[in-house]
């Protein structure tokens, strides 16, 4: 069978390189991409792009597609001619391997997109806080990743600014009685839901009070309780989480684990 000959050829080439090296079998590179995607999810980080494995999986997929077409050609458009059990098994295995490669490529690239979006929102929707030169996430981004990050950021900014300073017209989703606050002032969507106000992590916080260290001189600030406090650079404070979330996002303070 063609698929078996391809696999044997790969194993033979691996033996030529040396018995100490592990031969690469069909599907190994696709599995590697899936493992890296899982590792990226677990570490909440963007790993370097594995261009070598991606190219190999694409090349394998092209070879599988051509092998399927060639093997099935004698049976296409014919009546009463059925492939032998061996040919049917070869077509089935090749089709399953091709589908697995496609799924692995999709998972790998979709996970990179999801990680970029998560990093964007973790920093409050400020691209310079996560995609600036020298930062870890930026150093592992490809040109395509950078293009997506810029387009996604521009789209979010366009959506947000389209609501500021604009009045609603007819046909809005909100009812007329919901368009105004208690003082009779019109309420804009982005005043009610701030996309850039601290990320989209909906997991409940573990503690209501947190230890923070001041990185920049913040000065005198008013807490939600109404109390005022002077935050000096280098000092550590024990404050309510909701009072410091915005300052953590802006980089003025950092959490002390």
UniProtKB/TrEMBL annotation:
Keyword Nucleus among record annotations: yes
Comp. bias (Basic and acidic residues): 10-22
Claim: Nucleus is one of the keywords in the record: yes
SUPFAM superfamilies given in the database record: GINS helical bundle-like (SSF158573)
GINS subunit domain: residues covered: 91-163
A Pfam family per the record: PSF1_C
GO annotation, cellular component aspect: GINS complex
Alphabetic keyword roster: DNA replication, Nucleus
Region (Disordered): 1-22
Protein's name according to its UniProt entry: DNA replication complex GINS protein PSF1
């Amino acid at each position: 069978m063609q698929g078996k000959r391809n696999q044997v050829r790969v194993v033979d080439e691996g033996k030529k390189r040396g018995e100490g090296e592990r031969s690469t079998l069909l599907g190994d590179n696709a599995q590697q991409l899936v493992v890296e995607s899982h590792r990226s999810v677990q570490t909440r980080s963007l790993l370097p792009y594995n261009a070598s494995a991606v190219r190999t999986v694409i090349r394998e997929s092209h070879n599988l597609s051509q092998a399927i077409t060639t093997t099935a050609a004698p049976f296409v458009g014919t009546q009463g001619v059925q492939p032998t059990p061996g040919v049917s098994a070869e077509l089935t295995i090749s089709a399953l391997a091709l589908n697995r490669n496609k799924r692995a490529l999709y998972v790998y690239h979709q996970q990179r997109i999801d990680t970029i979006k998560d990093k964007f929102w973790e920093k409050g929707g400020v691209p310079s806080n996560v995609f600036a030169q020298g930062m870890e996430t930026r150093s592992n981004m490809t040109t395509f990743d950078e293009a997506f990050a810029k387009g996604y950021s521009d789209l979010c900014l366009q959506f947000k600014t389209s609501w500021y300073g604009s009045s609603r017209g007819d046909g809005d989703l909100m009812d007329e009685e919901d368009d105004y606050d208690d003082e009779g002032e019109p309420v804009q969507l982005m005043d009610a839901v701030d996309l850039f106000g601290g990320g989209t992590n909906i997991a409940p916080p573990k503690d209501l009070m947190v230890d923070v260290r001041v990185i920049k001189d913040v000065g005198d600030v008013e807490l939600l309780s109404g109390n005022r406090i002077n935050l000096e650079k280098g000092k550590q404070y024990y404050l309510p989480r909701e009072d410091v979330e915005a300052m953590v996002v802006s980089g003025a303070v950092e959490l002390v684990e």
